[in-house]
Amino acid sequence: MSSLLGHRRREFPQSVRKAALKRCTRDSKPHCETCDAELGERTGIIFEHVTPDGLGGEPTLENCKVHCKTCADVKTHTEDNPRMRKADRTIKARFGLKPTRVKIQSKPFAKAPPQRKASSPVEKWRGF
Ligand SMILES: [Zn+2]
């Protein structure tokens, strides 16, 4: 996701990832903190910002959630992306940024096709 703020994405440091993984581990296996699925190679282990990085979310343990791929995708597409788009719109509106528009040359409409003439006697009678 692009950010108008222009700062680089800040990933979680290894110490935060280790602590988050420890937090969600039961019976020596990590579990998704949203759907409680057991995490492994099949489900993936994703460390996700609760408050998106692009909106000022810090790379801290409090702002980190351990998710499976499915939960991470759901959060990204239903929560993070709409919030980021709204933030971008707000910034663009505040600073009066508008997309550059290229004027498209208009062409006159093509000549209309000739009117269809009634071919059968019934159509002639009905006035089609
Ligand atoms: Zn999950």
What is the compact description of this entry?
This protein has helices at residues 14-23, 69-94, 121-126, and strands at 25-26, 29-30, 46-49, 64-67. It is α+β, with helices and mostly antiparallel strands.
Protein architecture, described:
The protein has 128 residues and is of the alpha+beta class. It has a domain at 14-94: Orthogonal Bundle (DNA Binding (I), subunit A). Helices cover 33% and strands 9% of the residues. It has helices at residues 14-23, 69-94, 121-126; strands at residues 25-26, 29-30, 46-49, 64-67. The strands form 2 sheets. Strands 1-2 form a two-stranded antiparallel sheet. Strands 3-4 form a two-stranded antiparallel ribbon. A hairpin with a 2-residue loop joins strand 1 (25-26) and strand 2 (29-30). The mean pLDDT is 86. Zinc ion binds at residues 32, 34-35, 37, 67-68, 70-71.
Number of separate helices: 3
Supply the CATH architecture of the domain at 14-94: Orthogonal Bundle
The count of β-strands is 4
* Average pLDDT rating: 86
CATH class of the domain at 14-94: Mainly Alpha
The description of the largest β-sheet is: 2 strands, antiparallel
**Content-based structural category:** alpha+beta
**Would you identify the regions where 5 or more consecutive residues have pLDDT less than 50?**
none
Regarding quaternary structure, what we see is single chain
User: Which range best describes the helical content: under 10%, 10-25%, 25-40%, 40-55%, 55-70% or over 70%?
Assistant: 25-40%
* Distinct small-molecule ligands in the complex: zinc ion
Question: Strand content of the residues, in percent?
Answer: 5-15%
